[in-house]
């Protein structure tokens, strides 16, 4: 079972769009026009004659969008996500850089753990730093240029189900109800998705929802960046639970328009950096010198805060009975502690699941079980990465899964070895960037290598 998950994850990372569009359905309807919905629409454009994106926000809005309250916070586009975007939109990297995104090769990235600088992995993949509005805006430009993709500003209010299949969506436009028919409906309505309620109201099974309390408090601020090409462009500093006080970690990225974006995070009742004075003081006093150098520049605007209550997943794959012609993607299925930067990359992998499903010539009159099985591999991988770390948070008091003490000890050994050992760091980076399945770390060779590296370091 474990090896099959590793192989399936690797296969999804290798999924490419078809050379030529090959429609297997007429009209597809996507509910939600954020990153997950846009990427689903891009995939559907290869397999549907037409695609309609329904979203409450005007698709032409640039900058921060009302439907993305976390959009003002620091976002990471992991290498795994960048690879997926480059496949879906050839030239994405160059276009993002032309619009102001910052290329961050390994030599310009620094990562600290409990104040110790981690080893640089020389052949690690490049990252791209930019604000969420810039990256999402470029994805939106690409998708809305597709000839068979259209948008519709409306509020989705329910499903139309005939027999055993979804045949459309009910929507509201300025108080006027209407219906949009479709051969496939994709729920990309995010964490607040109402799909579970709609299914239950229509007499179908409601997916079980799992929650992992996180109570993460974010604070993000912008600073002027005088250097066009600074030596360090992406810097992260994390505190392990053993050393954590009221600040769990901090980071800063070089982003477009000559700015630094800096972030600080705390858990539970700890809300560090909620004022400009507190934000600057803590970065200077509790983190490596680079953080103080960033805060020496002019702060642009106010500190923006955000609270993330929990990680959650809706187990659509476990439904004994569900309607055909319906799938969910992105945060509507699973959303994780944003500290780990998995959101956009997970959405891209969900799009890869949709592509693999549609190219398999599926029977659309039956539930999308093949898609759900592929998506479960992605969700399980991201969920295990984030929640295994969250279980060690000081404010978390259980319940803990069976074997947690052993798995926690192994995780600590691997994470500690990433400070000094290049091979362990490379394997670990591949997992956290969602290019490899977490089970690829659970091998005797990796574990013994980490233990030996830690003994040498001591």
Short description:
By secondary structure, the chain is an alpha/beta fold. The chain has 13 helices and 18 strands. The strands form 4 sheets. It has an 8-stranded mixed sheet with strand order 5-4-13-14-15-12-16-18, sandwiched between helices. The protein has a 5-stranded parallel sheet with strand order 7-2-1-11-17, with helices on one face.
Q: Considering DSSP H and I runs of 4 or more, what fraction of the residues is helical?
A: 25-40%
What proportion of the residues form beta strands (DSSP E)? 25-35%
Per DSSP E runs of 2 or more residues, the count of β-strands stands at 18
Shape: globular
Low-confidence stretches: none
- Taking all residues together, what is the mean pLDDT? 91
What about the largest sheet?
A: 8 strands, mixed
The end-to-end distance, rounded to whole angstroms, is: 37 Å
Radius of gyration: 22 Å
Biggest sheet, spatial arrangement of strands: 5-4-13-14-15-12-16-18
Helix vs. strand class: alpha/beta
Put simply, the count of helices is 13
Kindly describe this structure.
The radius of gyration is 22 Å and the shape is globular. It starts with a helix and ends with a helix. An eight-stranded mixed β-sheet has the order 5-4-13-14-15-12-16-18, sandwiched between helices. It is built from 13 helices and 18 strands. 46% of the residues are buried. With 458 residues, it is an alpha/beta fold.
């Amino acid at each position: 079972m474990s090896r099959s998950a590793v192989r399936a994850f690797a296969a999804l990372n290798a999924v490419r769009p078809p050379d030529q569009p090959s429609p297997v359905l007429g009209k597809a309807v996507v509910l939600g026009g954020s990153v997950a919905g846009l990427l689903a629409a891009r995939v559907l454009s290869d397999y549907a004659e037409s695609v309609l994106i329904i979203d409450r926000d005007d698709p032409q809005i640039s900058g921060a969008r009302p439907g993305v309250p976390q959009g003002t916070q620091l976002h990471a586009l992991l290498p795994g996500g960048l690879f997926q975007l480059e496949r879906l939109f050839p030239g994405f990297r160059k276009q993002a850089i032309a619009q102001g995104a910052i290329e961050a090769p390994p030599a310009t990235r620094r990562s600290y753990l409990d104040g110790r600088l981690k080893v640089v992995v020389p052949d690690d993949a490049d990252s791209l730093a930019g604000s969420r509005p810039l990256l999402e805006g470029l994805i939106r430009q690409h998708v809305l240029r597709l000839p068979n993709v259209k948008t519709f500003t409306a509020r989705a209010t329910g499903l139309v189900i005939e027999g055993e299949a979804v045949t459309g969506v009910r929507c509201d436009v300025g108080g006027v109800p209407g219906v949009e028919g479709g051969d496939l409906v994709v729920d990309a309505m995010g964490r607040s998705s109402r799909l579970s309620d709609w299914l239950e109201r229509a007499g179908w099974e409601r997916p079980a929802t799992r929650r992992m309390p996180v109570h993460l408090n974010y604070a993000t601020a912008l600073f002027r960046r005088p250097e066009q090409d600074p030596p360090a462009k992406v810097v992260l500093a994390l505190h392990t639970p053993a050393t954590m006080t009221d600040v769990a970690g901090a980071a800063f990225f070089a982003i477009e328009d000559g700015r630094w974006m800096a972030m600080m995070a705390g858990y539970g009742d700890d809300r560090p950096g909620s004022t400009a004075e507190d934000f600057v003081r803590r970065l200077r006093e509790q983190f490596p010198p680079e953080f103080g150098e960033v805060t020496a520049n002019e702060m642009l605007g106010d500190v923006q805060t955000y609270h993330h209550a929990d990680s959650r997943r809706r187990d659509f794959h476990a439904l004994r009975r569900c309607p055909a012609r319906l799938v969910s993607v992105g945060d509507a299925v699973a959303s994780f502690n944003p500290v780990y930067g998995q959101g956009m990359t997970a959405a891209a992998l969900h799009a890869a699941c949709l592509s693999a499903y549609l190219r398999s010539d599926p029977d659309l009159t039956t539930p999308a079980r093949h898609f759900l099985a592929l998506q479960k591999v992605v969700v399980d991988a991201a969920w295990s990465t984030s929640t295994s770390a969250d279980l060690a948070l000081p404010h978390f008091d259980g319940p803990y899964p069976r074997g947690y003490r052993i798995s926690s000890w192994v995780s600590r050994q691997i994470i500690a070895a990433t400070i000094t050992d290049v091979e362990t760091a490379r394997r670990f980076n591949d997992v956290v960037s969602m290019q490899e399945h977490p089970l690829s770390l659970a091998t005797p060779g990796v574990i013994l290598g980490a233990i030996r590296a830690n003994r040498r370091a001591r």
